[in-house]
Amino acid sequence: MLNRIASFALATLLLITLSACDDSNPAAPEEPVELDTQTVEDLPADPTVTVGENGRPQGLNQYTFFSLRDNEIVLESGTEARADSNSTAWDIALQGTTIRINGGTSGPGNGAAYVAEAAFENVVEVDTERLQPDTEEALAIPTGSGNGWYNYNANGQNYVRPIPGRTLVVRTADGDGYAKIRIQSYYEGAPELPADRQAHPSRYYTFDYVVRTDGTPSFE
Amino acid sequence: MRNVCWMLVMSGWAIAALCASSAYAQSVSNAPPDTSRADTTAWGTPVELERVVVTATRSQKRLGQVPVPTSVIDAGEIEARGVRRLSDLLAEQPGIQLNYDHGAGVQVQGFDADYTLILIDGEPVIGRTAGTLNLDRITVADVEQVEVVRGPSSSLYGSEALAGVVNVITKEPSAPLEGTVQAQYGTHNTSDASIRVAGTRGDWRGKAFMSRYASDGYNLTSSATPTTPSFTNYVARSTLGYALSTNTDLEVRGRLAREDQSRITQVQGNDTQRFDSIGEQTDWSLAPNLTHTLRPGTTLELSAVASGYRTETRLVGQSDGTRRSGSRFNQQYRKGEAQLQTALGDAHLATVGAGYIRESVDADRVTGRRTGGFVFVQDEWTPTDWLDLVPSARLDAHSDYATRISPKLAALVRPMDGLHVRASVGSGYKAPAFRQLYLNFTNAEVGYSVFGAEEVRAGIDSLEANNEIAAFLQDPSTLGGAMDAERSVAYNVGVRVDLPAALTLDANLYHNEVRDLIDTQPVARKTNGQQIFTYFNRGRVFTQGLEAELTWQPRPALDAAISYTYLNAKDRDVLDQLEDGRIFRRTDAGRDVAVPVSDYAGLRGRSPHRVTVRFTARAESAGFTASVRGRYRSRYGFSDVNGNGIVDTDAEYAPGHAMLDLTLTQTLVDDVALQVGANNLTDYTNAQYTPEFSGRTWFVGMRATL
Fold first, then answer.
1. Chain B contacts in chain A segment 88-107 (CB below 8 A)
2. Across A52-66, B17-31, B575-589, which has the greatest mean pLDDT?
3. Helix (H) or strand (E) run with residue B21 in it
4. What is the Cα–Cα distance from B455 to B434, expressed in whole angstroms?
5. Which of B20-24, B52-56, B343-347, B368-372 has the lowest mean pLDDT?
């Protein structure tokens, strides 16, 4: 008797375990959403092109426009024709440490964003209440050291460092997609410390992101 | 201005009241406070508790009767160590950590150098760079003693005396004719030579002192720019005194210092250019002082100070001699002060004072002027044999920041012979720096602007008139109000106990709670996307710790001590964020995790542990003295590496290190002494963390006394 109960329990347990492991669970109603983490390396954001008076670096004062949905640059900061900036093809625009989103005063799209104070992995739901477009008063991703995604000179060595535990949560320009972004580095080659400024010029973004385009405000 | 007038009226009243009350007080039968200087034998046999100090209470008091943590370094000790600069002297002291940021500054009870007041003969020294008053500027070659008071003394000295006070007291003329010549030469072509001549004749007395200190500097790296520049520093000090009558004495002290620095520097642009970086610094002070003894035990002192500090730096191209860029800084300080001290009955010594200060700064980015008046009172009260109570308070009213009242109460209990218990609670403050009030700076390259609190309204108005403001982040009408001083409340509890076997233990526990630290915050966004910043009172920190020293003096010629200091200094706002789990770091595996509160190192540059040892032995008959000093500091937070703005991982610390210094002195005939010494015997260097240490250095020196 005891044996039969034990083997029944074992069989049930086995069944539960197996079904939990089964990827092709027929109960899943839709096709699985791809939520892979994509990495963008060394995205130039108006890098230095000339050295001005007193050795000061200067860019062109133009943004790089990037599509999170297609993982591609829509318009480089160096391109002269700027017409594509007035479209919903791009989701974020970067120049120096400033990041704009395609919505509100920054673009014609329906984009919005906020900065979550949470680890990238732990941002699983989009808090849609917090999503803000860019406005005259403030950008959705605040500028300035310690306000948004970076610290400047926190170590007295004039480095721009991404703040750990800050995740940018973005609604894409079409208003249907959501992305979360973790910035890894502001320097070309993403060194741990950009001590060699020649080898690792600034204004090159390396970041990880996850984008979901089916309209569900979740990354699970 | 109304504040100032009010204060002058109030102080006049206070002085009048005190005169009246002392007139009615019973005749002063007990002797006035001891006015004689403590004896120092040739090489400074310490007579610790009997030594007279003046800094802690602004009155002459025996060290054993001072109710706040105070230490003294006397001329004999300075000579036995062979040190010439205040920085080198204080570097070896228990309870003090030297930090090097725009010069050598003291860290007292965990505070940055900005928070310790530096005095020469009781008058403040001006001229700070980024908050640090470089103690290399101050020679100790003609110094009688250096007194260090730890804990706030704003109730007597006002601003800057938040962490403590260092008072450098120079030697007074004491014989018809005195003369001393000292010279030292060592590694890096470092030389220090000084001459002092002093004398008294009838009612006159005078002193002239001059020193020259120079070095080639050194280079710890392979870069063309040396680690420290070459420099030549001159200091002249003089005193002229005249006894107008048996009760009245007039003295004028003057000080003039000049330093020239130069080094090669490279500017990297499209092509690399070499420049001579040249710096000049002038520092002067003139201080007349009238002391009048109204009757035994009642003294009126009128003093004035005028001082100035001026620097100029410039880059001159090596190839073409063109001047590339330069900066200048000119600070002026004037003070007039009256102080009345009187014994009231047997048990009270009352001190009241009042004064007026005018300061100005004229520099490339900062121009401002401010005035202030102050009044202070103190009662040194001995209710019974075994108890001293010293309440004091000071009111400071200023033209450009809020009025401060700084009270303090200190007590000394002597329950039995050989046991002193000290306790004090007091408040300290530090006035906003000139840049925090008057800075007007726009970064030409990036385009952001920073305005001092007094400049921000005008600055924003003019930018708005030019349509350069995109949006306000704060209501502009709320900006530009009176800024508060940074302020603290401090608690100190200590004991001094005589132990068997010629041992003495002195220990002090302290806690400082600091508010209204001044920091920048953005107030508006410009049309170029950059921000406008101004200064606000917002930071909160605490510092707490233990300072303990065990001294051993089995006989006058043998003196040894070991000290231990524990320090814990943290930012309360950071602690709040850590407790809320809002500060993260990235692990090697690439995950972001919340930083545990226990991993927070606290404020940077603070070593939790510090140990010093000191040993001085004198063979009087042979005329030989040996002095050995050692010090160790444990690792300390250095810089943020992982981007979260705090020090929380091992890579963000500077390593702990130890130093050992040795000086041997041989006296020859008739007060001629030869000296040889080595500093940093273990040859510790670290170009990344401690470029101020050049490695082992040697010196030889001589001293001749007339």
1. 98
2. B575-589
3. helix B2-24
4. 11
5. B20-24
In single-letter form, the type of residue at position B115 comes to Y
pLDDT in the model for residue A30:
53
pLDDT digits (tens, 9 = 90+) for B80-113: 999 999 999 999 999 899 999 889 999 999 999 9
| Angstrom distance (rounded) from CA B609 to CA B636 | 9
Contact B268/A at CB under 8 A? yes
Q: Which of A56, A156, A164 sits opposite B644 (nearest CB)?
A: A164
- Structural domain boundaries in chain B: 2-34+48-705
Cα B452 from Cα A208, distance rounded (Å): 40
Gap between the Cα atoms of B104 and B134, Å rounded: 5
- Residue A212's beta-bridge partner residues? A178
Rg (CA), chain B: 26
DSSP state of B489: E
B151, two tokens:
């804990």
Task: Reply yes or no on whether the pLDDT at B46 is more than 80.
Answer: no
Task: Decide: pTM greater than 0.90.
Answer: no
Residue B42: count of CB within 10 angstroms of its CB: 16
Query: How buried is residue B493: exposed, middle or buried, by Cβ count under 10 Å (0-12/13-18/19+)?
Result: middle
Buried b (16+ CB within 10 A) or exposed e, B245-271: eeeebbbbbebebebbbbbebebeeee
Q: Please give the CATH number for the structural domain made up of B2-34+48-705.
A: 2.40.170.20
Tokens standing for residue B420? 């002193």
Q: What is the rounded end-to-end Cα distance, in angstroms, of chain B?
A: 53
* Distance separating alpha carbons of residues B508 and B145, to the nearest angstrom: 22
Q: Which residue has the higher pLDDT, A193 or B541?
A: B541
Interface of B with A in 575-634 (CB under 8 A): 582-586, 591-594
Tokens of B648: 């929380």
CA-nearest residue of chain B to A98? B529
- Which residue blocks in A22-83 are alpha helix, DSSP H? none
The H or E element spanning position B485 is none
Phi first, then psi, for residue A153 (nearest 5°) are 65, 20
According to the model, what pLDDT value does residue A84 have?
Answer: 77
Residue ranges in chain A whose pLDDT is less than 50: 1-2, 13-15, 17-29
- Identity of the residue in B522, B525, B645 whose CB atom sits nearest the CB atom of A151: B645
Estimate the share of chain B in helix, then strand, then coil, as percent rounded to the nearest 5: 10, 55, 30
| Residue B595 three-state SS | coil
8 A C-beta contact, residue B104 and residue B135: yes
Among all residues of chain A, which has the CA nearest to that of B448?
A144
Q: pLDDT digit string (tens) for B428-482?
A: 999 998 889 888 888 776 678 899 988 898 899 999 898 888 888 778 888 877 7
Please state whether A144 falls in left (phi above 0), alpha (psi between -120 and 50) or beta: left
Q: How far apart, in whole angstroms, are the C-alpha atoms of residue A143 and residue A137?
A: 12
Backbone angles phi, psi at B687, to 5 degrees: -65, -30
Place of tokens 């029944």: A8
Query: Lowest-pLDDT range, B102-111, B178-187, B345-354, B587-596?
Result: B587-596
Report the C-alpha gap between B333 and B355 in whole angstroms.
13
CA distance B657 to B655: 6
pLDDT band at B387 (very low <50, low <70, confident <90, very high): very high
Residues of A in contact with B640 (CB under 8 A): 151, 154-155, 161
Burial class of residue B382 (count of CB atoms within 10 Å of its CB; 0-12, 13-18, 19+): middle
Phi-psi region of B253 (alpha: psi -120 to 50; beta: other; left: phi over 0): beta
Interface test with B, best of A48, A143, A152, A155 (most B CBs within 10 A): A155
pLDDT above 90 covers a percentage of chain B that reads 69
Kind of pairing between the strands at B653-654 and B348-363? unpaired
